[in-house]
Amino acid sequence: MAGLAVRVAGLTLRHPVMNASGILGSHPEGVKLLVDAGVSAVVTKSFTVEPREGYPTPIAVPLPYGLLNAVGLSNPGIDGISVVVEEARRAGLPVVVSIAGSSEDEFSRLASAAEEAGADAIEVNLSCPHAKGMGREIGIEPRLVYSVVSATASVTRIPVIAKLGYVDRLVEAVGKALEAGARAVTLINTLPAMMIDVYAMKPVLGNLVGGLSGPAIHPVAVRAIYEVYREYRIDIIGAGGVEDWRTAAELVLAGARAVQVGTALVTRGLRVIGEIVQGLERYMEEVGVESIEELVGAAHRD
Ligand SMILES: Cc1cc2nc3c(=O)[nH]c(=O)nc-3n(C[C@H](O)[C@H](O)[C@H](O)COP(=O)(O)O)c2cc1C
């Protein structure tokens, strides 16, 4: 597996496949499952300062082309960070703590708590499409991206990764995140979405609106990563519809140094991680490269 080793956002990973935030990373039991599945780093659920129960059900609807969800950032709050970090560290894996908030002060407090708990990096969620006052409302405004990332980066020494969704001014927003001290970006989060029951004549999700993930958003992720890599050549962690080696490889060729798997862990099961890793190894042999790093951004070459 030596050829699959990558460095991204200051982390050394034995292969490029980690979980996406929100899938199994809010409690130690979930972290254990991720470790057993073979992820190269554990990404936690987004933690907020106060515990959040989440939205009323239904919180997720499977679709033929992806998953529609409005979980509502349910998490145990700032005090839950340390147990999750400990569990991942016990397995010897780097741990990325995802944080979400509605003010610079909240982000600073969460970042400090994550560093104190032993996190290896912080992923700042600037892109949740359904939590009011949080996430996407920050990510769509480059000025706010700057202030939140700098509030986070200024209180920690560990790498800060800005997680953005596909927004109109994405390249500008990434530029602001970098200026504010982000070491890398994760692209993309779910896209704003909604479903209506035609007989009930009502929205299906308990929260009415939510986010779309899975295969449907994969081409959007490819484009987002391609555009950002073309502009800055920075470390990018790709997310969005990764469900096999091919979808993972596409994000790498667009410019991602590592990939995250979210929906496929739910729809295909935990073994998908091992399948992607093995598939990438075979692909590297097929195309004759010794290190996956040679493939990062390769689609940009003439
Ligand atoms: C059920 C669910 C919960 C999620 N929760 C979070 C979260 O807490 N923080 C976050 O940054 N992204 C969250 N996401 C977004 C994922 O991390 C990922 O960016 C997105 O789903 C695209 O990847 P995928 O197509 O592999 O699922 C969530 C996604 C799903 C499906």
From TrEMBL:
A Pfam family hit: DHO_dh
Name the UniProt record assigns to this protein: Dihydroorotate dehydrogenase
General function of this protein: Catalyzes the conversion of dihydroorotate to orotate.
Ligand binding (FMN): S21, K45, S46, N125, K163, I188, G214, G240, G241, G262, T263
PANTHER family: DIHYDROOROTATE DEHYDROGENASE (FUMARATE), DIHYDROOROTATE DEHYDROGENASE (QUINONE), MITOCHONDRIAL-RELATED
Ranges of residues in domain Dihydroorotate dehydrogenase catalytic: 4-284
Enzyme class name: oxidoreductase
EC identifiers of the protein: 1.3.-.-
Family annotation (InterPro entries): Aldolase_TIM (IPR013785), DHO_dehydrogenase (IPR050074), DHOD_1B (IPR033888), DHODH_Type1 (IPR053488), Dihydroorotate_DH_1 (IPR024920), Dihydroorotate_DH_1_2 (IPR012135), Dihydroorotate_DH_cat (IPR005720), Dihydroorotate_DH_CS (IPR001295)
Needed cofactors: FMN
Stored SUPFAM superfamilies: FMN-linked oxidoreductases
Family stated for the protein in its record: Belongs to the dihydroorotate dehydrogenase family. Type 1 subfamily.
Record pathway: Pyrimidine metabolism; UMP biosynthesis via de novo pathway
